[in-house]
From TrEMBL:
The lineage of its organism: Bacteria, Pseudomonadati, Pseudomonadota, Alphaproteobacteria, Sphingomonadales. InterPro entries: Fur_C, WH-like_DNA-bd_sf, WH_DNA-bd_sf. This is Uncharacterized protein. Gene3D superfamilies: 3.30.1490.190, Winged helix-like DNA-binding domain superfamily/Winged helix DNA-binding domain.
Length: 137
């Protein structure tokens, strides 16, 4: 089941929750998959470094970057897509700052909410279109 859950997550550029995954697995196989069993699989995949939890959406992403370094997850609040970026430089600064405060991090998750380039371009085009066609201007 781990391979099926991981494969399914790899098909999406947005986080999926355990309930969504269970529904998709059930639809694909015809057999019921319970969110609790999917959640256990996700926990194991996380421990193996193959998926990332996304707290903002209560979902999960397939990890697309190799290595154990922390990853920035950039979440678009408009379309829901997520982009993963390496956070190696930030990790050094963060760990150094935390060490100075005698705090040892066990896991680091970095999520940034905003608007992706595609949604920003659509929004800019919509605003420009409205401005050009609005009789008040």
């Amino acid at each position: 089941m781990q391979d099926r859950v991981l494969w399914l997550l790899q098909q999406y550029d947005r986080p999926l929750g355990a309930y969504q995954l269970a529904q998709k697995l059930t639809a694909a196989s015809g057999y019921p998959h319970h969110p609790n069993s999917v959640y256990r699989v996700l926990q194991n995949l996380m421990l193996e470094g193959r998926v990332l939890p996304v707290a903002t959406t209560n979902g999960w992403l397939a990890k697309r970057l190799a290595g154990p370094a922390p990853v920035f997850v950039l979440l678009c609040k408009e379309c829901g897509n997520a982009l993963q970026l390496p956070a190696t430089d930030l990790e050094d600064d963060l760990v150094g700052s935390l060490a100075a405060r005698r705090f040892l991090p066990r896991q680091v998750y970095l999520e940034v909410l905003g608007r992706c380039r595609s949604c920003d371009a659509h929004r800019s085009a919509d605003i420009e279109s409205d401005w050009l066609t609005d009789p008040a201007f």
